[in-house]
Amino acid sequence: MQTVRRALYPGSFNPVHYGHLDIARRALAVFDELVIGVYVHPDKVDLFTGPERIALIEEAIGDDDRVRVASYNQLTVDYAKDVGASAIVRGLRVFSDFELEFRMALANRRLAPGIEIVNFIAAEEHLHISSSTVREVASLGGDVSWMAPPHVVSALARRFAELKSRGVSSSYMTSLGKD
Ligand code: ADP
Q1: Is 122 in the pocket of ligand 1 (CB under 6 A)?
Q2: Per residue in 27-57, pLDDT tens?
Q3: Which of 16, 117, 107, 1 is nearest to 67 (CA)?
Q4: Atom 14, ligand 1: which residue's CA is nearest?
């Protein structure tokens, strides 16, 4: 029997954008199945809740039996083991990502030597996209349609309109979800 190569793609995805989706698509060319794990910090107020972030990812992925989206709030390597993943997929954009990912990969290997960390280099056109940039530009009314799919753009517009109508300041709004 052939073993299924399953990978975990963990992140905050707050919200999902084209950079994330490109990595997911490319990971599916290498692995049979992908679990997209949305890390939900138990004590943090984020712009989108865990279930909202999951719904936005699911809509972006569409109907694909190879992908499952779920939230978690444990050690990533433990979650990878729980879902039966043999690898953790991460994207690399700028040099600052490299240092962080390098340190995380070394720590994760100590914690779970059986799980490989697989890094994909971001596509050039997505290098400067991050969820915080998406949130910041959208909170100020800028165009984010080149960074995220239409349903994410609409969800951002709705959320910021709702926060503004409640008198929430834009600096607080962009801080939502910051690490
Ligand atoms: P963000 O930095 O956008 O908030 P996350 O923290 O949710 O993203 O990151 C989840 C994973 O996706 C990380 O491995 C991150 O490096 C990767 N990633 C984020 N943005 C991009 C991008 N523009 N291109 C490729 N990979 C990315």
Answers
A1: yes
A2: 999 999 999 999 999 888 889 999 999 999 9
A3: 16
A4: 90
